[in-house]
């Protein structure tokens, strides 16, 4: 891979606050969200200003979900911020994704959700012409995928998998044929090539392999296609998680997927990636810092993670609420026990070996910590740690249920080991960091 340096920012989810971000309906919606609507514009402006101060790296890449939900006014406001960043000397390359068009766009006013003007998919190329599309060597018109030479001898294959012309989150045969033509042309022109895509190609954590839109459809097929055609690196987003994963095709070719978290929400991070003359790629994760918001004395990271922690608990609370008759009563009982029960009580009940470090921790606190930790990357709960032992003990006690469920989750003859999948989701056993890592590329 030829030398290049760039910033990677994903899932800005920019929202124009003048549309309306207040009231009971808004607060109810945001209580369970991982990304932040009201704060998004301030986070984007602060981050862009910080990136603009770096005079050494002049490339910024943003792989999709630029706006909250395709509001035309959000696009217009974000584009103004992109022009300011461009004026600082940056070349900016974006792709769009499902949150940028076609959805029902809405805002919140007077305690209600109101519809606002959205954006047509076919307008996006022109809107972002100065941020990648205008520099394209080739554009796949049906999907808005494109190829751009971001620096001399280095081309970027921008794969757009959310369009009107193929299933969302997919790369069909026609699309792959077009991509192969571009890869072959780059080789002929003696150019290195990497790719970007909004969707992760490799599931960010093992359990995401069971979640339909947590990765590109038929991900092994797409990963093998890219790896076997010489694309070794892809930059992704969508799942709002910090992860780096390797995949090897049957032919032994490698694909590295660097999935980066949501900027406007927890984990609130972005990356700087540098590839030197020896093809050594260094990945640096950068925290969103103070963005001029009243955070009740917390740092930006503490503020973002607390909001996500509380959102996780709110989702559990929602799952344990509602219903009718006996279901309502059972949920109510479970909800009360969830808030009152400690880890130690669960260990006693299930005859799991007790750990003094966790015995007084309440279940909501633990659930929130594990959730935030998964998305931060570098899962700390590896084998031998208190949380690992606790979760492992629970899974052992309920192994008879797991064994009944696993056959139903099999796909294409590939067996599922739920215990291993869940434990490897809360703990990073890959041998390298999800945040700051180094690889040697071909």
- State the domain count: 2
Percentage of β-strand residues: 15-25%
**Helix proportion range:** 25-40%
Neighbour order of strands in the largest sheet: 6-7-8-9-10-12-11
Shape: globular
**Which CATH top level class of the largest domain fits?**
Alpha Beta
Termini gap: 6 Å
Largest sheet: 7 strands, mixed
CATH-wise, what's the superfamily of the largest domain? Metallo-dependent phosphatases
Which ranges are low-confidence, i.e. pLDDT below 50, for 5 or more consecutive residues? none
Radius of gyration equals 22 Å
Q: Classify the fold: give the CATH topology of the largest domain.
A: Purple Acid Phosphatase, chain A, domain 2
CATH architectural grouping of the largest domain = 4-Layer Sandwich
Helix/strand structural class: alpha/beta
Tell me the series of helices and strands, N- to C-terminal: EHHEHEEEHEEEHEHEEEEEHHHHHHHE
Average pLDDT figure: 96
How large is the count of helical segments? 13
